[in-house]
Please model this.
Amino acid sequence: MTIECSKHFSRDELKCSFDPDAEVLMDVDFMEALEELREEWGRPMRLSSAYRTENHPRERTKPRKYDHLGNPLPIGGMHCRGRAVDCLIAGQDALEFLRVAVKYFNGIGINQKGDWDQRFIHLDDRATPAMWSY
Model:
């Protein structure tokens, strides 16, 4: 099941930046975890990326994956499945945010270099825990 918005996140925040008129297909379970994180964090979370259509330039370069039964998953990664967001956050706030985020999400990608306002933490709910840097 999917949703287009939630208590703390509007459709505008969750929509695909490449195709803003496309339906927003955020996974309900993912959004429940994101809302729980937001409640515990107690502050607004600025998203730089959430749902992405299969035509999004970053998603078109990713290889097709399959579920445990061999059925093809949507083209692209966790953003295409409505199961990922990138949160704009930097510095000490990023470290504090990370301490809370690991309670709710298994996939954590960290980009804390370059321009301060472009730094982010990627969150997704993949089955196997993973952490990486960009």
